[in-house]
Amino acid sequence: MDKAGFGIYLRSALFLAVQTMITVLLTPLVLLVSLLPRYEYRYLLARLWARSLIWAASTLCGIRYEIQGIENIPEQNGIVLSKHQSAWETLMLFLLFPKAVYVLKQELLKIPFFGWCLARYRHIAIDRSQPRAAMLSLQKQGLARLKEGHWVIIFPEGTRVAPGERRRYAGSGGALAERAGVPVVPVAHNAGECWPRRSFLKYPGVIRVRIGPPLFGSASEINCKAEQWIESWMAEITASVPQGHPARGSLV
After folding, report:
1. How many helices (H) and strands (E) does the chain have?
2. What is the bridge-based pairing of β-strands 205-211 and 184-189?
3. In what order do the strands lie in the sheet with 124-126?
4. Which CATH number fits the domain that encloses residue 198?
5. I want to staple 195 with a disulfide (CB 3.0 to 4.6 A). Which of 9, 88, 126, 203 is the partner?
6. What is the Cα–Cα distance from 201 to 219, expressed in whole angstroms?
7. Is 176 exposed, middle or buried (0-12, 13-18, 19+ CB in 10 A)?
8. Would you say residue 55 lies in a domain?
9. Chain segment 171-204, per-residue pLDDT in tens
């Protein structure tokens, strides 16, 4: 069981209430704006939603952050390969990379309010129960989104992983980058230390985000370089977190 005091539970509950309120209030606006011909208005609302939740997490739960490497983001759009530990980075990456779209599982589109809004954007929804079809869909939709000027954000491990853990990296990001001729930007962070996966609780602390230099080359070269860069930075970031942090090792 998490060793969290009453204050952690209270602040986490307040954040959940604010998160729910903001999402419910913005949903009808997103649905209405999606009827307009100009696509940019939807992004204004999405960025407002993401910025509001990051502010709420900071104000209510004490989750601060520091970002290094923003200068590494090129003007040309491309692909982001990022570590995936929580919901926090999905908010921040959306703010860091213009017109970002995510590769996500189709089930998310069925979630009331949140899923309804997701469906109004040009995210790449795939069926993970059919790996081959999912790969083909990702490549086809990914090329289209890149040509439209979007950044495509991929979590190469496929799902959220607990701090200190890692999974096999999929090669779809490098394959798409080689085919489209766009750069890949690797991202490492420790968001799971403060906003753990599958947990209601949010812990105060500092989320450290590291953005790497653009990667080019063949699919295998890109994937190898991205994994090495991300995991080397993960080791350094994780080592800087106190061993007594309540989020460490508390989840399976």
Report:
1. 7, 7
2. antiparallel
3. 63-68, 205-211, 184-189, 79-82, 151-154, 100-105, 124-126
4. 3.40.1130
5. 88
6. 38
7. buried
8. yes
9. 999 999 999 999 999 999 999 999 998 899 999 9
